[in-house]
Amino acid sequence: MNNLSKPHTLRLNPDAERKLNELLNTATPELIERLTKRDRAQRKGYRGHSGLKPQPKALLLRCAVEIGLYLIESELEVEALHTPGTDTP
Q: Region 66-84: what's the mean pLDDT?
């Protein structure tokens, strides 16, 4: 059983690409290990083996997407509160 989602193509703007490369170039083995543990802890059904070793770029992007989604959600909720005619929960 494979719990991984299908691959998605991601195109970054030049500033984001530069920032990602900076992070990759300065990432310590400890940081990569911490990101790996975080990723594995969040995987449903992870049983101590997942095939290929996780790649630093994928780990950083996955972490960025996860954090970013929560930031976007909170920003959109704040916008909804300040937008006339918008239903708020």
A: 85
